[in-house]
Amino acid sequence: MREIREIQEGELDEFLRITTEAFPGMNGATPDDRAAMLERMKRVMNEPTAHFFGVFDDGQLVGVMRLYDFTMKLHSTRTLVGGVGGVAVDLLHKKEHVAADIIAFYHNYYRNKGAALTSLYPFRPDFYKRMGYGFGAKMNRYAFKAAALPPGKGKSHVDFLMADDKADLAACYDRFLEQTNGLFELPLHVLDNMFA
After folding, report:
1. Which among 77, 83, 42 is positioned nearest to 187, based on CA atoms?
2. pTM of the model as a whole
3. Do strands 77-89 and 117-120 pair parallel, antiparallel, or not at all (unpaired)?
4. 85 near 68, Cβ under 8 Å?
């Protein structure tokens, strides 16, 4: 019988095995890599906005996912938006509709919590399109070399952000969020990771 429930910390090793086999680009090859990944997973698992779930067939873990409680500025209101990530199915249980069950659970979970929307970053756009998802706005990430900064009379106005600046950065982001539509709040643990 298939059951979907939250993962316990003692089940994280199997959760990680399924995830790293499904995403070969993940760096979990050495015991040290795996130990570091498990520690990161434990930290994220303890965040109040992150939820780790597993799909069990007769007690055996066959699929995994992480759900995220996001808050989005939608017109003039901040509202709950459900997010899903790390959807992975054990290689021996492919083509058994495990991923489809995961996404159906995800939709019901956030419908029951009163979420206005669900959101995801599609690893397999064709799969999610069949589930009713469409494409959102293009995501851009900008990076530049320090040499590209315009020359000036000095560098007194340029500095590195440090952990002490976290509250100021969060306040700046929040001011921008108030002036836009569709932007997610920046969770505190994301800021912590930026400064780690």
Report:
1. 83
2. 0.82
3. parallel
4. yes
